[in-house]
Amino acid sequence: MKRVLFAVGMLLSGWRWLLTRHKRNTPPQPKSLITEPDDQNRFLPFESIANLRDIGGYKTVEGKTVKWKQVYRGASLAYVNEDEQEQLNVLNLQVVCDLRRHDEISHAPDNVPEGARYLNIPSMDSINKIGQIRNLLFKPRYIEQMMGEIYIEAILENNPEMFGIVYRQIIEGNLPLLIHCTAGKDRTGLAIALLLRVLGVNEETVLNDYSLSNHYYDYFKRISGRLVKRLQQVGFSEDDVSPLLMADKRNLKMAIEHIEHKYGSIEAYLSQRANISTQDIELLKARLLE
């Protein structure tokens, strides 16, 4: 393993000059990617929990509404301060679904609110790292679509059971429930997007909801310091790295289109890969729609 890492390091150092030979696009400002999906202020007023919001209030194509105060999404609970712990307890969470890997949790374990059951559903780190490095070396603009491909390879295809376990909690009535990862943007973003779609919320609204995470771009940048530093060491600038930290709707749309092309529908994907049947989806609707 050490030899492999050494060889990769030498490869990156030796080919660093390639990165400077390609003209790169100027990245958009994170706030410019935000499309407010409605006039509801769904962010909860927590200073110590980033990106925490309620997914309620969205209309479905059948004219129903997603219930408020049932499913929340956000970043980790590792930094909940003493002043806001009681405020978190008031949400009466029954389950906290933590999608982080074990190594992430070991550095920043959750402060679980009173009365809540903690459920860790770790996404396995199964992405083709060598392939990603090769693409970054020879196609520097690949970084702009990298997150979309990570969504497909590392989450949708290699960790589908994550969705099934989370949705099963809702089906069994373990509500209110919080779904979170480290930033509440990628793993959580996909889990919420697929849930809203099967509930009947239209795709545009779901994409817009995803874009709201850009309000916390500065937080993502702060917690991703190690990743940013590594990429900068091999020739990427801060601007080059920024697409990895943004909630660009194109990434989520790429993931949804992959599901529809390969499986036919999100419902079919959940049935085939996540053990969530048509009957289960009807139960999800019964729990979360009014």
Output the keywords.
single chain; 290 residues; Protein-Tyrosine Phosphatase, Chain A; 5 strands; disordered N terminus
- CATH classification, class level: Alpha Beta
> N-to-C SSE series?
HHEEHEHEHHHEHHHHHHHH
Terminal-residue CA separation = 54 Å
Query: What general outline do the C-alpha atoms trace?
Result: globular
Number of helices: 15
CATH homologous superfamily - what is it? Answer: Protein tyrosine phosphatase superfamily
Give the strand line-up of the largest sheet. Answer: 1-2-5-3-4
Average residue pLDDT: 85
Helix-residue proportion:
40-55%
Quote the CATH topology. Answer: Protein-Tyrosine Phosphatase, Chain A
The CATH architecture would be Alpha-Beta Complex
Radius of gyration: 19 Å
Number of E-state strands: 5
- Strand content is 5-15%
* Derived structural class: alpha/beta
Q: How can the largest sheet be summarized?
A: 5 strands, mixed
Low-confidence stretches: 1-23
Number of domains: 1
Write the layout of secondary structure elements.
Layout lengths: L1 H13 L1 H4 L33 E2 L16 E4 L7 H8 L5 E4 L3 H6 L9 E4 L8 H10 L7 H12 L3 H11 L5 E4 L6 H13 L3 H9 L5 H7 L1 H9 L4 H4 L7 H15 L2 H8 L4 H11 L2
Parallel strand pairs: 2-5, 3-4, 3-5
Antiparallel strand pairs: 1-2
Helix pairs in contact: 6-13, 7-15, 8-9, 13-14
